[in-house]
Each structure stands twice: as structure tokens, then as C-alpha cells.
Specification:
The protein is mainly β. Helices cover 2% and strands 54% of the residues. It has one helix at 301-306, and strands at residues 7-15, 30-36, 45-51, 56-61, 64-76, 83-89, 98-102, 110-112, 116-126, 132-136, 138-144, 147-152, 156-161, 165-172, 178-179, 185-193, 199-207, 211-213, 219-220, 224-230, 233-242, 247-256, 258-259, 266-267, 273-276, 282-283, 288-289, 294-299. The strands form 7 sheets. A 6-stranded antiparallel sheet has the order 1-2-3-5-9-7, with no helix packed on it. Strands 14, 16, 18, 19 and 22 form a 5-stranded antiparallel sheet that branches. A hairpin with a 6-residue loop joins strand 23 and strand 24 (266-267). The termini are far apart.
């Protein structure tokens, strides 16, 4: 392999914009072109782009995926010489839960004609990985008619941000010692926090058939929402846009449903047992689900047995 000749740096007045998986985060920094002389004269060289010392800065949330420009390489060998390039990234610094791929890492070369540039792309998929900043070193291999070179380029910087978080809190209402067939009501809160990049989120939840939603006493601090009836249950969809570090909440009021019977009707719960006020609220597309809230109807159960009712969910 040909030995490397000292690197010359050329500063350019331009900027890099990296857009994260949310499609709205913007990252600015200074750009430079690194020229590497791979033949005896300075007029002939290969080059690659660096931005504040990095081939690229990739900002990605937990439980998300992103495609990005990994490295731009230029061919300035004279005599219209075509150069074949492949990249060898070192992923050993990345934490568990991260899968990354850089174009040509399989040693299938990409030809670059003289006086032209080529941008290699990459893809990163992040699960529940530890947030933080990591570096991926990149080794560039180049071959051409009569020569070859090995170049250590600027590394890729990977910044993993915490993804959105969601939880539920019961604000009011009984959780136990609930009599059968009585009017009961509860207020619970869905709380969403965004510690990463700006994003538009959709939150879904299901209110089971034992309850009705009091729309007049239900509200969200931000965004739009609606409830749709499916069978006996009510399905919530809440759409909200969050900035970095922003938190939002939604308060939902529900009450036991009135069940019509031949003798007029009765309130849920009609049988003793445990009842979920709602399913776990889900942030759609992230695989993030909150806790659910469960209450217990356990008063007047002896009367329930004498009437021959089954126990458990009504």
C-alpha cells in the first residue's frame, strides 16, 4: 500500500444541515475539505469533506431510524483517472441496541471519475440504546490504475437522544372498595415528555366498554383529539406537536356506563373483579406504551353470588 503524504486542509465558507428522523431538527457547523496527496505532486489528490472534524454528525432518537449522508469523497487525480473507493467503518464504539450500515462497507467499490465527487450514504437504526455521543472511525480504501492508498478520514459522530416518554396518573376516583351497580367516576391524566428533537406525535388509547367518556370534562394542554366508538369501547387519538424538552398532558374524565335492562337499567360494574380504566396509551410508531390503571369492584360481592352473576369482567 502507498504511504500517506501529509494532509492539506482547505477551509470553505459553507454549512451542513443534518435533519433527524422527526424531519425538523437543524444542525449547523463549519465545513472543510481535506485534501490528501496520494501521488508525488500536490496538484493531484483525493479529498473528503469534514464538518468540525467529523465526516457527518448524525442526531437520532431512541427507537427510531435515519438515513444520512456519511462521507463525500472527491477525485482530483490527473489524466482522467477513475478511482475505485470503498469504506471500512469501525462500529465498536457504538452501544448495544444500535445497528449502523455505511455504503460500500461490504467491500463493493464505488467508481469516482476524475474531477467528480461521490457521497456515500448510511443508515442507522436505534432501539433502546443508551443516550450519548459516540464516534465511528472510517478508513477509506482507494485503488486506481497503477496505484492505491489507505486513508483515515474524519469519523462519523453519532448523537443518540432520549425518545419521548409517556405515563398515566390517576387524579381522582376510587381504586378499590367499589360497590357493584353504582355510579362511579375517575379522572386520569396522560403525560407525554419530549426530551429529543421536535416531533409530531400521535397517542392512542382505548376506554373499555364498562365506561363512558365525559367529553365536557376532558381536555388536552395542546394538540387535537377525538374519541371514536368501536363496539362498546371508545378509542382515543391525540395528535400533538412537541418541541425539544416540552411536556404536554391530557385529562380524561370517565364514569361507569348505564346498562339498559328489561327492568330499566343498572350501572356498571355488574360483577366483582378487576377492571382496567383504559389500555396502555401508545405513542404510535415508537413502540412506547404507558402503564394502565386498574380498579377493583369488591363490595356487595356476596349479593352478586346469590343473584347467580359471574365474577370478573362485566
Amino acid at each position: 500500500m502507498r504511504k500517506l503524504i501529509p494532509v492539506m486542509l482547505l477551509l470553505l465558507l459553507s454549512s451542513l444541515i443534518v435533519i433527524g428522523s422527526s424531519g425538523t431538527f437543524v444542525y449547523f457547523n463549519a465545513e472543510r475539505e481535506v485534501k490528501v496527496a496520494v501521488v508525488p505532486h500536490d496538484e493531484e489528490y483525493l479529498s473528503f469533506m469534514c464538518y468540525d472534524g467529523y465526516a457527518a454528525t448524525v442526531i437520532v432518537d431512541q427507537n427510531s431510524e435515519l438515513t444520512f449522508d456519511a462521507l463525500t469523497v472527491g477525485n482530483y487525480l490527473n489524466e482522467l483517472e477513475t478511482v475505485n473507493i470503498w469504506l471500512d467503518p469501525d462500529y465498536s464504539n457504538l452501544p448495544s441496541g444500535v445497528d449502523m450500515w455505511i455504503e460500500s462497507e461490504d467491500a463493493i467499490t464505488r467508481p469516482i471519475n476524475s474531477q467528480e465527487y461521490y457521497t456515500f450514504w448510511g443508515n442507522i437504526s436505534v432501539g433502546n440504546a443508551d443516550p450519548g455521543t459516540y464516534e465511528v472511525p472510517i478508513t477509506l480504501y482507494a485503488t486506481w490504475d497503477g496505484g492505491d492508498a489507505v486513508i483515515e478520514t474524519c469519523p462519523i459522530r453519532v448523537v443518540i437522544l432520549s425518545g419521548p416518554k409517556i405515563k398515566k396518573v390517576l387524579l381522582s376516583g376510587n381504586t378499590t372498595n367499589i360497590p357493584l351497580k353504582t355510579y362511579q367516576e375517575w379522572v386520569f391524566q396522560i403525560k407525554v415528555n419530549n426530551s429529543g428533537t421536535p416531533r409530531n406525535l400521535t397517542i392512542k388509547d382505548v376506554i373499555p366498554g364498562e365506561f363512558d367518556v365525559d367529553l365536557n370534562r376532558t381536555s388536552a394542554s395542546k394538540g387535537t383529539y377525538n374519541f371514536t366508538r368501536h363496539g362498546k369501547s371508545d378509542h382515543l387519538e391525540w395528535n400533538v406537536e412537541l418541541g425539544p424538552g416540552e411536556s404536554v398532558h391530557m385529562n380524561v374524565t370517565i364514569f361507569t356506563r348505564w346498562v339498559k335492562t328489561g327492568k330499566g337499567g343498572k350501572w356498571e360494574f355488574t360483577s366483582c373483579g378487576n377492571y382496567s380504566l383504559n389500555e396502555g396509551a401508545e405513542i404510535v410508531g415508537y413502540g412506547i406504551v404507558s402503564n394502565n390503571i386498574t380498579v377493583e369492584a369488591n363490595v356487595d360481592c356476596e349479593d352478586d353470588k346469590e343473584n347467580g352473576n359471574s365474577h370478573g369482567r362485566g
